[in-house]
Write a structure and sequence with these properties.
Blueprint lengths: L46 H12 L10 H9 L10 E7 L2 E9 L5 E6 L12 E3 L4 E6 L7 E7 L5 E4 L15 E2 L11 H7 L10 E6 H4 L13 H15 L3 E5 L2 E2 L12 E5 L6 H13 L3 E6 L25 H4 E2 L4 E2 L6 H17 L4 E4 L2 H5 L21 H17 L4 E4 L21 E3 L1 H12 L24 E5 L11 H4 L5 H16 L3 E5 L24 H19 L13 E8 L4 E6 L8 E6 L5 E8 L5 E6 L15 E2 L11 E7 L4 E5 L1
Parallel strand pairs: 9-10, 9-20, 10-13, 13-16, 16-17, 17-18, 18-19, 19-20
Antiparallel strand pairs: 1-2, 2-5, 3-6, 4-5, 6-7, 6-8, 11-12, 14-15, 21-22, 22-23, 23-28, 24-27, 25-26, 25-28
Helix pairs in contact: 5-6, 8-10, 13-14
């Protein structure tokens, strides 16, 4: 799971210009009454309700923005998948007058006022009307204008005043400010129709996915500025498109896009689930970024955090003076290690808030997938907790039954409505059927991060080559379970922080040995079944651990060894993308064949990746010791001539540049249990990839 720096809690801050500070603590009170209906009902029954919700939301008259009985019913059932079009702040026309319609769910509030720049932050001016049965407060304010700041002033049953940001706001005040800002998403214009049309028939099981994980605020910065020097969404769009196309990635995964108050949380402690962070620009600017990536055939994945939220005074915690979004029992509703609150997955309105949010990013902002953070912490009631800090489920075990049902509901709806989109689980345990179908008691995710492979791979690569013969199994074990889920092989941000070292500094030895080790490791990863993900900076072997406080060390590319490993990873990516053998049978055992998984004492691995009809296959040979094998014999299953398509000994990759044949004719001589074989001069830490 993602490791976060600090709890990310801000002290209560001013709501905006002239707003009183919120010092009220959340009062202990009764839990919000659950809406009718069982937890996580079967998704097959929701199609009609959803169609009705869409019709209610999109009615073409000037009162369409108003919340009606059907909205209450669907939200109370947890099935109002476009509730974000009703709750929040939306420009509207009422009786011929333009203004803004505000709506907020605060079921246990005594009174609610909307305050902002349009009324001098006066809580008496625009008191909101309570609607039953769910306790939604509404107010049409003709004086409110786009761009103005606002908050909800919530009076609790105890008479305390809480100044809360809008949970459904689409734009927020730049931190350290904590107010919401009125905006109009209807102005966003898209020009990615070709991409969106193609997405509907795209299948992640049959297509390549090589993901570049990026923290936008520290990927690249403007030097010499008094502020952080962040690139705007638009500046980043131009730069990242050029780089990703040159390198050969298929997707970009963006960290920290939803609004969050604390930079050091990396975006994993969210206060504005429906707002692209204002650090880098407006919601329109963010849409421009997605649009440009799509027009250049690059997919977009966002990190998404439904596991927990921070206790910041302006955020979701104790929203109406009671545990509104979180479990009321602190043994369920708090993560002691992180100092955060846990969403109440048994509450229909909370499930609806999260599911509609996932749909908001995928449908409204055209995002192609969500990487769901900290899934294990949601599935296990005792995750990160000691005895006495958690409550067992009704069967006496540690599974969170409500979270399980939430995932099935979430993935059924998101993937059912959006063919070609992906839902990715960061799940660090052996929980079964994470990518299994909900009707087969699976969680319904498209893909799962392969944390087991990552652990074994990095631990093996850290070893001195002399000792690798005793850990040879660590590089082969993942094939024992490779087809149990739909996996992504990940070397993420979590692996290059908190004294774990960057990828290059995990490698043993000095100088050449470090770079040669990492090149061999990256090649093994690219050949292994599973989609691929690498965190930014590791493609050119950044030396320092990653920090969100500075840009990655682009200056290293002036050094030959860093440029050479970037060349190597670039060509691995292009090899991956251009060869179906490396991706179209990731989930089929027939797509992978060990040639020699047991060359323990020489620490050499050889294997073949097969295409669907075995028309074009790739043989990988990877040497993980500094010992050159001048005539290394490799078994092959064919008499066909093999073509050398990637050779780590080329000068552009930091090798000797020694000339060697490009084609190799197998001889009829048994080796590695195969009827034919070739001999190849395999360098120290050498990698050779052959095509046949």
């Amino acid at each position: 799971m993602a490791r976060r720096k600090g709890a990310g809690r801000n002290a209560a801050k001013s709501a905006g210009k002239g707003t009183a500070k919120n010092t009220a603590k959340g009062m202990a009170g009764s839990a919000v009454k659950k809406a009718a209906g069982s937890v996580g009902r079967n998704m097959a029954n929701n199609a009609g309700s959803n169609a009705a919700a869409g019709a209610a939301s999109m009615t073409a008259n000037e009162n369409a923005y108003e919340i009606g009985e059907l909205d209450h019913y669907l939200f109370g059932q947890g099935n109002h998948y476009e509730i974000y079009k009703k709750l929040g702040a939306h420009k509207a026309v009422h009786d011929g007058t333009e203004g803004v319609y505000f709506a907020v769910w605060a079921p246990h509030a005594k009174n609610v006022s909307v305050i902002g720049e349009f009324n001098g932050w006066n809580l008496e001016t625009d008191r909101m009307e309570r609607q039953e049965p769910l306790g939604i407060y509404v107010k049409f304010v003709p004086e409110a204008k786009e761009g103005q700041l606002y908050k909800f002033c919530i009076e609790t049953q105890a008479g305390e005043l809480l100044y809360k940001a809008d949970p459904f706001a689409n734009y927020a005040e730049l931190r350290p400010g904590t107010a919401s800002r009125i905006t109009d998403l209807s102005r966003i214009k898209w020009s990615d129709s070709a991409w969106m049309k193609a997405r509907r028939t795209w299948d992640h099981k049959k297509n390549p996915m090589s993901i570049y994980e990026v923290h936008m605020g520290s990927w690249m910065r403007h030097p010499g500025r008094e502020d952080e020097g962040f690139y705007t969404y638009r500046e980043f769009a131009e730069a990242i498109v050029k780089y990703v196309k040159e390198m050969g990635y298929t997707h970009v995964e963006l960290m920290g896009i939803a609004e969050h108050p604390y930079d050091g949380s990396w975006g994993y402690q969210v206060t504005g689930y429906y707002a692209p962070t204002s650090r880098y620009g407006t919601p329109e600017d963010f849409a421009y970024l997605v649009d440009l990536l799509h027009k250049n055939n690059i997919g977009v994945i966002l990190d998404w955090v439904p596991a927990h939220f921070p206790k910041d005074a302006h955020g979701l915690a104790d929203f109406d003076g009671t545990p509104t979004f979180e479990y009321a029992d602190p043994r369920l509703g708090e993560h002691p290690d992180w100092g955060t609150k846990v969403f109440d997955y048994g509450k229909a309105e909370v499930r609806n808030f999260l599911i509609a949010n996932a749909l908001f990013w995928i449908e409204y902002f055209h995002v192609d997938g969500l990487r769901v953070d900290a899934v294990a912490s949601m599935l296990y009631l005792d995750y990160g907790k000691q005895d006495g800090q958690w409550v067992a489920n009704k069967y006496g075990s540690n599974e969170n039954l409500e979270a399980i049902d939430f995932f099935k509901h979430l993935n059924s709806v998101v993937l059912g409505r959006n063919k070609g989109a992906v839902m990715i689980a960061e799940e660090s345990t052996a929980w079964p059927k994470v990518t299994g179908a909900p009707e087969d008691d699976g969680l319904g995710f498209s893909l799962k991060w392969n944390m087991g492979w990552m652990h074994d791979f990095t631990e093996y690569m850290k070893l001195d080559p002399y000792f690798r013969k005793n850990a040879h199994h660590m590089m082969t074990f993942a094939m024992q379970y490779a087809y149990s889920e739909n996996y992504i092989l990940v070397l993420s941000h979590d692996e290059v922080v908190h004294l774990k070292c960057s990828m290059i500094n995990k490698m043993p030895g000095l100088g050449f040995d470090k770079f040669a080790n990492l090149k061999a490791g990256y090649a093994f990863m690219m050949g292994h079944p599973g989609k691929k993900l690498l965190f930014m900076g590791q493609e050119f072997a950044q030396l320092r651990e990653w920090s969100e406080k500075r840009e990655i060390d682009w200056f290293l590319l002036a050094e030959p060894e860093h440029k050479e490993i970037q060349n190597w990873y670039r060509d691995l990516l292009h090899l991956y993308k251009s060869n179906k053998a490396l991706y179209e049978m990731d989930n089929d055992p027939a797509g992978f064949e060990w040639i020699n998984a047991d060359d323990i004492f020489r620490s050499i691995y050889s294997f073949v990746r097969h295409s669907k009809n075995k028309e074009k296959n790739l043989l990988f040979v990877c040497n993980f010791t500094p010992v050159e094998r001048e005539d290394y014999c490799v078994g092959v299953p064919t008499r066909k001539t093999l073509k050398l398509v990637l050779n780590s000994d080329e000068e552009q990759y930091g090798g000797t540049g020694e000339k060697r044949p490009l084609t190799y004719k197998p001889v009829k001589q048994e080796c590695d249990g195969q009827p034919y074989s070739i001999e190849y001069p395999l360098p120290a830490y050498g990698v050779a990839v052959f095509e046949y």
